[in-house]
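Posted in: Structural Biology > Protein-Ligand Complexes

Title: Requesting predicted complex, 2-phosphoglycolic acid in pocket

I'd be grateful if someone could produce the 3D structure tokens for the following input. Sequence and ligand are given below.
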Amino acid sequence: MTRTFFVGGNFKMNGSLDKVKSIVEGLNAGSLPSDVEVVISPPFPYLKWAKDHLTASTVEIAAQNSFDRGDGAFTGEVSVAQIKDVGSTWVILGHSERRTILKESDEFIADKTKYALDNGLKVILCIGETLEERQKDETLTVCNRQLDAVIAKVSDWSDIVVAYEPVWAIGTGLAATPDDAQDVHSKIRAHLAEKIGEKQAEGVRILYGGSVNGKNATTFNGKPDIDGYLVGGASLKPEFLDIIKSRA
Ligand code: PGA
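-- Reply #1 --
Done. Output follows.
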């Protein structure tokens, strides 16, 4: 089973229209490989601008959040229909910053995932343990629990990409080692195989996220269960292109 290499750029709550313009221009001029799926995720106000100005057919747009219900009286939320209306095809759900800072529960994330999928958005589903959980050897317990909440509600995983993002590696400059990441990824895939079947599990892309940069990206090459990256800080910099090209 060949899984298309996937590189996501999560801008988080960073940047400005000028910044997004320069990133999009960089991608447009970047001679991107045709066999790498790239998804960039600017803040909501810039989704449409980015969509309208990206020229490479391999680059799609993700929102950084969506709600679990349709349009209505939900002040401050953004609907799946609105996200699709401006040309986005993906949404990032379950990011640790939303789990920890916004206190989103496994259950709520599962509801949002189901709603997004049912209404035609593909989902980058983030999971991962905190440093404290890792030190207590709970990495897989946590990842499996976060996955199980979604498994309970979603049976077709063909439009989900899982991003394993250990919280201690996000924005710290301290990426997981390629061996450690591969070890967790293979166990995540084994867990998926047990719960949603081997065939589906083989097709699910599992991205690594946490301090991936232009220099360390190639060190993950050759790891069979690492199908790409979800990149935060480095997606705002020219080195994002090096990460996109790191499997070449
Ligand atoms: P980072 O963030 O690359 O800045 O560590 C990754 C993420 O949060 O998706």
